[in-house]
Design goal:
The chain is of the alpha+beta class and about 220 residues long. It folds into 2 domains: about 60 residues, Winged helix-like DNA-binding domain superfamily/Winged helix DNA-binding domain (Arc Repressor Mutant, subunit A), CATH 1.10.10.10; about 140 residues, 2-Layer Sandwich (Beta-Lactamase). It is built from 7 helices and 8 strands. The strands form 2 sheets. It has a 6-stranded antiparallel beta sheet. The radius of gyration is 18 Å and the shape is globular.
Length: about 220
């Protein structure tokens, strides 16, 4: 006879899966949408969401839809802490220089997950890139910048990667690989509403920042 899976384990698994679905969604999810993706009754999903809200892992926007909560940033602080600390000044400078959201992503399984991000101080509108946001390393500029470190033979030498409408429609990104001693493959990137931009200048600036971070951690 096979032992049944403990109920507490199932509850935790459902909660973590719900959190992953909210993180992976291109737009905030309604309770109905989350219920459909989980394949669970709305009443069960409400209980899961309330628990996640109580811990600050998800929040509801003005429309009542679900987004990642700020508590995730606190939980992520000790993940690659030295790398985040070294990257933050560079991300801040890049974000304000180009008026774009700058962020650090790292490899997690076969996905690129955002560790930290900085929005520009004086931009009229900026793209939110919350810690915990993730997508496959086969999609988007940050994903490919990370993947190029795992499979260099598959990528032509390039100083930076670009993407348009790949992860979220209407958004573009520029990213460079970040390979720091003792750290998982990572990427420095900017994301912005698709518009004319000096991509070579952005790529060069990101590459300069990556070199500075590696030097600080070496």
């Amino acid at each position: 006879m096979t032992a049944s899976k403990p109920a507490s384990s199932q509850t935790l698994s459902r909660g973590l899966t719900a959190l992953e679905l909210v993180a992976e969604a291109e737009t905030p999810l309604s309770i109905s949408e989350l219920s459909g993706r989980l394949g669970l009754h709305r009443s069960i999903v409400y209980r899961i969401v309330r628990t996640l809200e109580d811990h600050g892992l998800v929040v509801r926007n003005a429309a009542g839809d679900l987004e990642l909560g700020a508590r995730l940033a606190a939980l992520a602080r000790n993940v690659s802490h030295d790398l985040q600390s070294a990257a933050l000044p560079e991300l801040t400078a890049i974000s304000n220089e180009f008026g774009m959201t700058a962020f650090l992503a790292t490899l997690d399984g076969d996905e690129a997950v955002t560790l930290t991000s900085v929005e520009p101080r004086h931009a009229v509108a900026a793209v939110a890139q919350r810690p915990g946001t993730r997508h496959s390393i086969t999609r988007g500029a940050p994903g490919r910048a990370i993947r190029s470190q795992l499979y260099p033979a598959e990528y032509a030498p390039a100083s930076f990667e670009t993407s348009h409408d790949e992860v979220i429609t209407g958004l573009s990104a520029v990213a460079v690989p970040l390979s720091a001693p003792g750290q998982r493959p990572a990427a420095l990137a900017v994301v912005y509403l698709t518009q004319p931009a000096d991509v070579p200048a952005i790529g060069a600036r990101l590459q300069k920042a990556a070199m500075a971070i590696v030097a600080e951690l070496s």
